[in-house]
């Protein structure tokens, strides 16, 4: 017994932010010194490494739960279900609702509870809760939903991934150019055939890696000294991902019973184009295979890194035939994988 996805939806925020947006920013380093390179060169290097040319920001009147609601409603409509039949609403995020112009996170009540309220669901036994698991949060929510369904606790679950990272960035840190806003969602229910989740794996590396992504002070020391922003150790994360994500993907694929040559797509968290390509190449090297052409769809160049939203949003785009050279057909075997704050790694193999 397993579960399958019967509906998907996403929300791509309307405001397009090009790299030119950052041209007047005062980027400084950890020591509080202005970077010597021009912002144009900094942006050029960012594009070369991450692939990011543009990213999307939410409208000023929107918060994360608003984005999640839109994606959730789209998934419900796509599945053609009555939301009253949902047994669980699982909302993956990391920073809650942060209103424009503020830095304070609002997570009470949970974002899942807010979405359930806005969907006007009357069923009190539809359980709504949040998952904080870094960028792999949506995958972890899917794994939890699958466990509930396999255990007979639930028949149908809604899993949302949404974030407004633009609200928690330090404008003096060049890494702020990476982050974006967005939302994606999916409906899962019990599978009545051999389709659905075939295997999954999760891991948390906390002994030495816990603080590779963290909340820290602005690099501009006299700017809001008590306010914290999202920070990362980019080189350490890159090395960690290359060392651990391919191995997790290999374990997941081996557990599924499928062969490497049977994979049709790998949908990986859109964190950094060069890093993602290196991860997938190393994954194939573990099987002495070259990385196939068009195996890994990428949209980070236009959408940036929206954390938990990247994978469900990308899946929706593929299933809606919005990406050239990429499609998923019945019977296709797809690997989903992610890495992020924690440091957490997870993956699942899915048969469509």
From TrEMBL:
InterPro entries with a match to the protein in the record: ACP_syn_III_C, ACP_syn_III_N, Thiolase-like
SUPFAM superfamilies for the chain: Thiolase-like
Boundaries of every Beta-ketoacyl-[acyl-carrier-protein] synthase III C-terminal domain copy: 253-351
Keywords from the UniProt entry: Acyltransferase, Transferase
A Gene Ontology molecular function term of the record: 3-oxoacyl-[acyl-carrier-protein] synthase activity
Annotated organism of origin: Chryseobacterium piperi
One BP term from GO: secondary metabolite biosynthetic process
Name of protein: 3-oxoacyl-ACP synthase
Entry superkingdom: Bacteria
Domain Beta-ketoacyl-[acyl-carrier-protein] synthase III N-terminal, chain residue ranges per copy: 129-199
């Amino acid at each position: 017994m397993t579960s399958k996805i019967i509906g998907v939806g996403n929300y791509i925020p309307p405001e397009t932010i090009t790299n030119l947006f950052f041209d007047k920013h005062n980027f400084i380093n950890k020591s509080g010194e202005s970077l010597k390179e021009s912002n144009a060169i900094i942006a050029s290097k960012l594009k070369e490494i991450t692939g990011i040319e543009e990213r999307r920001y939410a409208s000023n009147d929107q918060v994360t739960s608003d984005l999640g609601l839109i994606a959730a409603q789209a998934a419900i409509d796509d599945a053609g279900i009555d939301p009253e039949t949902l047994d669980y609403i699982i909302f993956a995020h990391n920073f809650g609702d942060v209103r424009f112009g503020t830095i304070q996170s609002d997570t009470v009540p949970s974002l899942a509870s807010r979405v359930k309220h806005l969907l006007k669901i009357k069923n009190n036994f539809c359980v709504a809760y949040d998952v904080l698991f870094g960028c792999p949060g949506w995958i972890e929510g899917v794994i939890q939903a699958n466990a509930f369904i396999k255990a007979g606790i639930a028949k149908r679950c809604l899993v949302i991934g949404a974030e407004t990272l633009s609200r928690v960035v330090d404008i003096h840190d060049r890494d702020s150019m990476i982050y974006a806003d967005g939302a994606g969602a999916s409906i899962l229910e019990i599978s009545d055939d051999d389709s659905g989740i075939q295997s999954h794996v999760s891991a948390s590396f906390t002994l030495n890696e816990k603080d590779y992504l963290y909340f820290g002070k602005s690099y501009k020391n006299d700017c809001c000294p008590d306010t914290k922003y999202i920070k990362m150790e980019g080189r350490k994360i890159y090395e960690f991902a290359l060392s651990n994500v391919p191995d997790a993907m290999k374990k997941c694929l081996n557990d599924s019973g499928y062969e490497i040559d049977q994979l049709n797509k790998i949908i990986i968290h859109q964190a950094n184009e060069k890093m993602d390509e290196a991860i997938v190449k190393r994954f194939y090297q573990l099987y002495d295979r070259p990385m196939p052409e068009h195996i890994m769809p990428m949209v980070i160049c236009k959408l940036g890194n929206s954390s938990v939203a990247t994978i469900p949003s990308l899946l929706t785009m593929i299933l809606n035939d919005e990406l050239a050279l990429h499609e998923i057909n019945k019977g296709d075997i797809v690997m989903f994988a992610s890495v992020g704050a924690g440091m957490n790694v997870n993956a699942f193999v899915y048969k469509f």
